[in-house]
Amino acid sequence: MMEITIKTDNLLQTPSDLCVLGVFEDAPLPAEIAGLLEPADFTGKAKQTLLLYPRGAVAPRRLLLIGLGKHADASADTIRQAGALAVQQARTLQVAAFTMGASIDMPLTPEVVAQALAEGLELGAYRYWHYRTGLTAAQTFEVQRADLFTSSANAQAARAGVAAGQIIGRGVEFARDLVNSPGYAMTPARMGDEAVELGQRAGLKVTVLNKAQLTEQGFGGILTVGQGSANDPRFIVMEYGTAGAGKPTICLVGKGLTFDSGGLSLKPADAMDTMKSDMGGAAAVFGAMQAVAGLKLPLHVVGLVSSAENMPSSTAYRPGDIIKTLSGKTIEVLNTDAEGRIILADALFYAQRYNPAAIVELSTLTGAIVIALGPHATGLFATDQALADKLSRAGEASSERVWQFPMWPEYHEMVKSEIADLKNIGGRPAGSITAGTFLAAFVGDYPFAHLDIAATGWAASPIKAYESQGGTGVGVRLLTEFLRHYA
Ligand code: BES
Ligand code: ZN
Ligand code: ZN
After folding, report:
1. What whole-number distance in Å separates Cα of residue 170 and Cα of residue 187?
2. Is the dihedral of CA 13, 14, 17, 19 positive or negative?
3. Strand 19-23 relative to strand 97-102, pairing
4. What would the pLDDT profile of 120-160 be if each residue is shown by its tens digit?
5. Which amino acids bring their CB within 6 angstroms of ligand 1?
6. Which of 71, 147, 153 is nearest to 111 (CA)?
7. At CA 200, angle to CA 294 and CA 468, rounded to 5?
8. Using CA positions, which residue lies closest to atom 8 of ligand 1?
């Protein structure tokens, strides 16, 4: 965990082992530095870097220039990536503490800049190496501190931004850890334990329902999907704050499939090898709950997670089975691999008891969304346009983009069954939308948004500098941004 401080001294006159300087494409370099390099070698294009040894021209021993692109185009995401590049370079150089600043002010508020930078510094240092052995001291080296330089006028806002960015960054890391943990370790029971521990450290009220309690209370969806596994299912309730005047209740719901083999409708091997990540929606809810508590938002936020393991066995549910869900509605199972919507049906129905202002649900729900959007956006499906617009704005602001799909009633016809209320697949056409309308059947009239993170929850290879291979923690930044503006 890195310490990040705000300083108001002169960056280039402050001695350090490494000074990182953000430089714009269309702004001149500081005079002391301009003479140290051939101008053509470094243009300031976004993400370009150049390491210099100034040899007394300025106070720092090393100078890392990071391109920020054109001044007018500067975005929080460029800054977030610059933070990640900075901490990664510091680690490579084995510098325990470094200084950082920009050649001129950003065209963004100091709070936004500092938050993005802090997120980048946290996330850029993230790696999941719990299972690696024989690591050298150079490999395990961690940067301890970053001192960020700004004007005294901006210092207070920058401190607030850093504090928020660190809280949010740690929420993302928590979510990544949960997703990266192997399926045998991150069982539904372990998810329940994680929730209890989160509740203790963040001050949440946490309830975990075990199999006997689920049976007693009629959680038919979760129980049925989980019945083929030796690892019993759980339903998790995490509550932050209390409802009250001016404090609306928001329910966050997550799919917590700790491993999705497909069940008897078994997945092919190459589609199964990342399926420990099928609890990415739940991980986002965990991370967001941690961040919301850390930020002390004036809201009532309820996190609900359905957790089960989808396995093929002699006790597994079958195609043709008919499930009675918590809502009383029945589902005809035609493919045991479309299990997410079944466990979510119980959680979404349960959410209604809080009389929420909004229900926002996240799940690694469909392969079809991978085809539609690829890794560059999360699919958004909403029954309420004001809610959808809030999430879209939060997506832009957090650089966790969402893209909205229609929810016309014609689509819902595709998941109606002859012999039950619903069937769990609607065919290949519009597969992500029919999954979304299926979920919406369980929320009553409450404003509802479903976020399909099947393509964004896992990174086969990182795209942004602050990403890492494996779980992305997607949803934490988005939800936190959404909730901060809701508050
Ligand atoms: N967990 C998968 C969806 C998924 C696919 C997540 C790829 C991440 C990457 C989900 O449970 C699933 O298997 N969905 C099926 C539904 C189909 C049978 C209607 C799918 O999308 O193929
Ligand atoms: Zn599945
Ligand atoms: Zn699944």
Report:
1. 22
2. negative
3. parallel
4. 999 999 999 999 999 999 999 999 999 999 999 999 999 99
5. 260, 278, 335, 337-340, 364-368, 370, 425, 431, 454
6. 153
7. 55
8. 454
